[in-house]
C-alpha cells in the first residue's frame, strides 16, 4: 500500500526544545517537501529536496533544519530558534524530471509548543 | 514568487446545488493542482490540471493557462463536499505556491 506517512499525528513540546517530525514515503518519488499551515491560511514551503543528500530552503526556512540521507525519508527538525512553531506540518513528495510533477501529501503532524 | 488568489473565500450551499470556485495566478505555470482538505487536515488530490479540462464524477476543472486562471466546478453538492479547497501552482521548479483557499459548507 503506497503512500506517505507522518508521525506522530500530534506533538506537544515545551518552548526551547528542539523537535523532529518524521516523513516517510514508499512511492519511489525523488522529491520531498515540507510545508507549514497556520489556521485559516494556505500552505507555505519550508524546505524541499529533489535528490538524496541535497535540499534547498523554501520561503520560510528560518528556525528549521532537514536532512535527506535516504530517498524514502525527509525528517524536519523544528529548532528553538523558530519563533512561532505551533502549526500544522505537512510533508509531500513527487517525481522529478517527468512531465507530470504532481505532489502528494501525508496526513500531517499538529505541533503545539507551550 | 507566483501570487495565487482564490475566490470566493467562503461558500455556503444547499445540498444539491452547483458551484464554481476560481483560482487566479500571476505568472505562467507548468503545474496546477486542486486539493480538498478534509476536517482532519488531510489534503486530497482532486486534479492535476496545468491546462485543459478534466472531469471526475461530480467534480470538473478547467484551466485557461493563457489567461492565468482555473475553475473548479462542483455539481449536485453533498455534505461530504464540505471543507477547504486549495489551488496550488508552480512554474519551472517544483515548489507549489498555495492560495488561501475557499471554505465550502454544504447544508443538508
What does this structure look like?
Chain A is mostly beta strands. Helices cover 0% and strands 49% of the residues of chain A. Chain A has no helices and eleven strands. Chain A has strands at 4-7, 10-13, 19-25, 31-37, 43-51, 54-57, 64-66, 76-78, 87-94, 104-105, 109-113. Chain A is globular, with a radius of gyration of 13 Å. Chain A starts with a strand and ends with a strand. Chain B is mainly beta. Helix content of chain B is 0%, strand content 57%. Chain B has strands spanning 4-7, 10-14, 19-25, 31-37, 43-48, 52-56, 59-64, 69-74, 83-90, 97-98, 102-107. The interface between A and B is medium-sized, with 28 and 23 residues.
Largest interface: A-B, 28 and 23 residues
Which percent bin holds the helix content of chain A? under 10%
What is the CA–CA distance across the termini of chain B?
Answer: 40 Å
Query: Pairing-aware structural class of the strands and helices of chain A?
Result: mainly beta
Strand content of chain A: over 45%
Query: What percent strand of chain B?
Result: over 45%
Amino- and carboxy-terminal Cα gap of chain A: 36 Å
Helix content of chain B: under 10%
Oligomer: heterodimer
Please tell me the overall pLDDT of chain B. Answer: 95
Q: Count of helical segments of chain B?
A: 0
Rounded Rg of chain A:
13 Å
Question: What spatial form of chain B do the alpha-carbon principal axes imply?
Answer: globular
Question: Which geometry of chain A do the CA atoms define?
Answer: globular
List the helices and strands and how they pair.
The complex is a heterodimer of chains A (114) and B (108).
Chain A: E1 4-7, E2 10-13, E3 19-25, E4 31-37, E5 43-51, E6 54-57, E7 64-66, E8 76-78, E9 87-94, E10 104-105, E11 109-113
Parallel strand pairs in A: 2-11
Antiparallel strand pairs in A: 1-3, 3-8, 4-5, 4-9, 5-6, 7-8, 9-10, 9-11
Chain B: E1 4-7, E2 10-14, E3 19-25, E4 31-37, E5 43-48, E6 52-56, E7 59-64, E8 69-74, E9 83-90, E10 97-98, E11 102-107
Parallel strand pairs in B: 2-11
Antiparallel strand pairs in B: 1-3, 3-8, 4-5, 4-9, 6-7, 7-8, 9-10, 9-11
